[in-house]
Amino acid sequence: MSVYVSSLCLLSVPYPLLHHDPLHQFPVIRSNKPRLHNTYSLRLIFNAKSSVSSSTITHQRQSLSQTYELFLREIAGFCESNNLNEAFYLLQENSHNAYVKEGMGILLQACGRQKDIEIGKKVHDMVSSSTHFSNDFVLNTRLITMYSMCGSPWDSRRVFDNLKTKNLFQWNALVSGYTRNELYIHALNIFVELVSAKDIKPDNFTLPCVIKACGGIADVDLGYAIHGMAAKSGLIGDVFVGNALIAMYGKCGFVEDMVKVFEVMPERNLVSWNSIISGFSENGFSLESFYLLMEMMGGEEGLVPDVATLVTVLPVCAGEGDVEMGRSVHGLAVKLGLNQELMVNNTLVDMYAKCGCLPEAQILFSKNNNKNVVSWNTIIGAFSMAGDVYQTFYLLRKMQMEGEGMKANEVTVLNVLTICLEKSELQSLKELHGYTLRHGFQNDELVANAFVAAYAKCGSATSAENVFHGMESRTVSSWNALIGGHAQNGDSLKALDYFLQMKFSGLEPDCFTIGSLLLACTHLKSLHFGKEIHGFVLRNGLERDSFIRISLLSLYMHCEKAPSARVLFDAMEDKSLISWNTMIAGYSRNKLPDGTLILFRRMISKGVQPCEITINSVFGACSQLSALRLGKETHCYALKASLTDDIFVACSIIDMYAKCGCIEQSQKIFNRLKDKDAASWNAIIVGYAINGYGKEAIELFENMLALGRKPDSFTFVGILMACNHAGLVEDGLKYFGRMQNSHGVKPKLEHYACVVDMLGRAGQLHDAFKLVDEMPEEPDAGVWSSLLSSCRNYGAFDMGEKVSKKLLELEPDKAENYVLVSNLYAGSEKWDDVRKVRQGMKENGLQKDAGRSWIELGGNVYTFVAGDNMLPESKEIREMWGRLEKKISKIGYKPYTEAVLHELEEEEKINILRGHSEKLAISFGLLKTTKGITLRVCKNLRICVDCHNAAKLISKVVEREIIVRDNKRFHHFRDGFCSCGDYW
Ligand SMILES: [Zn+2]
Ligand SMILES: [Zn+2]
Known about the structure:
The protein contains 53 helices and six strands. By secondary structure, the chain is mainly alpha-helical. A six-stranded mixed beta sheet has the order 2-1-3-4-5-6, sandwiched between helices. α19 (323-335) packs antiparallel against α20 and α30 (511-524) packs parallel to α32 (546-558). The longest helix is centred in the last third of the chain and has 17 residues, at 874-890. This is Pentatricopeptide repeat-containing protein.
């Protein structure tokens, strides 16, 4: 993409030479119109003549060359119709005539324009073999210019050095030639020779070339010196000198100096305005370039924007994403009749595409009857950037059918390659590679690197390596393509392996290498290697690179080291939206919702505007906390910030209300959705499922089918979860059976896990076990652990022991699993085994997660840990629980000490039960709220039987609704009952 943009920009800076020809000694046949028109119209006139047979031409030639004027006209005619050979023969035939000199001059100009160095050399031979012309000033000047226009400035230098005497014209031609060929240092050196020469002073043609050279090497000090020289010699008032100074200061980023030159110019032309508009836009002053455009159009000079103006301003609109301004410029182009100009049309297409208005871009493109390769590259690049694989390849094929003149070039290939990210694109990628090989630009380093990366991203490591090893020389960029491609494809180990090979080959990594390595470590969750890279980053001062810093944040977050990420984040001076998002989402992913909310508040207070990604994470955090009030506030905020149109945000809102126990609210949001896609149906079905409303979830599911919506894998997770939570075993089995047979969705592990859990909870342990045997995939720890809980609940000790073994084999490092196993033994009062399991846990250095509960009151979230007596309100909470316990004991509460799985005295067990975190949270909630307010508590583990009993009775004695969300489901306690029907 950037390649063709920069080529457009180059063209957009008008070069004074086009308007400023010092060689006005000849009666050159040309009009004052821009050359593009000129060539076109003249070609039309002379085409007829050149298509006549050669015998007639010879005949005509003899008669036409009788006079000087006719001779010149014919030479010019051949030149304009690209018949340089004919023109040369005509010259040869007339070489004895004195007026042949003018003809040679015209032909040399044409050779330069058409870059025909062969004919140019023949004319050169003619000149140097002639005693009359070999030292002719004018012809030698033309020779110098011809060679430099043909891209051969060293030949220009040869002509220059062979001259016995030189005047300013030859010096100027050489300086200009070097500048034209971007040999800026040479241009400046020859300029120094010029000013040292006697009797020769630079003029208003020399200085613009030299000033341009200063801009080319971005040497503003030298620029100042030339500026001073111009002021001293009085050339500063010349409009071409002024224009060159404006462009030079703009290129060097010295905007103030640029403006100063512009302001004091005694005379300005269109190029002056174009140059300053371009200078402003290049330096990021988009608004200023718009203002200047307006000022120019409303000015006294009566200037009208030309193609150069429009192609300067349109990329500014594109860069700013300001499609409104872009449309105005488009309107202007139509008014000026410039919208059909090829460069303008291409730039318009590019502007609309970059502003996200692909349909407009496409219409403009298709209306263009004069497409060139840039037009095709622009539209292909647009669809590639939008991620539309189908259209990108479709357009590429269409371009190929346009014939010889419209063949895909390096830029096209690079534009298409960026979209090849998936295995499904591998075939197209190979075809494109074949094309590249046939057309011989596989040796282009950028193209080769892009193929390496594309093959790696599409999962073809072998092809990537083949291209890589076929490269003539491998730079850091080539290694980056290989390493980055594999890291992005998720093949992290390969990426790390290539990095070691790269180091071995003696190359040092750069920012891009480091970024890819950090990505690989993030995927691998390899904190060890990640820290080594972090060390490298610090040693090499790369931590200032914002991309690397964000990669580091992401690494620490994925490795569950939120505090380390936070230290890095706090030290960042300029925090971008991406870095805020990385932190906010990271906290949410690490189940640290408090962190998400704190950072979100800080982000808002710092005036950083959140985006859809941010708000999604915040809704996620509210869901994790069941923090309804915060969730509502966030919802309001999102509405005000117009972030709720995004379907993902809408789904997060549905999910948030559902997880706060407000399924009615979820339903309202769902009803209001205009386009209910699969994701939104899934969100609402899962919402009903986790709230235990099995029947409602089934009804929704049937509605979805009736509307012709296709359920996907996630829909079935929802519906099976719903049946599981509501104990609807028969329905659950029915949907599980239909899943593949009627809907063609292959059951995956998570579906089996749901059904196994459902059967286990219903006590159908043998069926559950049988299903585990039938699973096409190896069951994971989740399946075994849910089965183990069921075994314990139903006292199936033998089966439980078998399951325990499987579970600890699969996941020996997880404390939770040991707790489950020890619970099984404790349930059967096998205390020796309990001790053994706990001992094993200790030896592995594992600790049981403490029970934790949250409650949100007045927008603040309070956290309680089981057994914590150190809170400021601990005394009040204990007293509150004492009062509650007394009241519920009167209506039948008895501490269920079996829920305590330690071997302890009865009284100690009761004391442990009193310290359960959900009891602390409920007591605190009742202390801090008034009658009628629903309490919403959230717990990290499953609620125990004792707390469940107590909560039911409390809801009755205090006449409050209490909602507890544990790590599996919801319990709505009301009037002595729970919505789960004691099935959890
Ligand atoms: Zn409990
Ligand atoms: Zn319950």
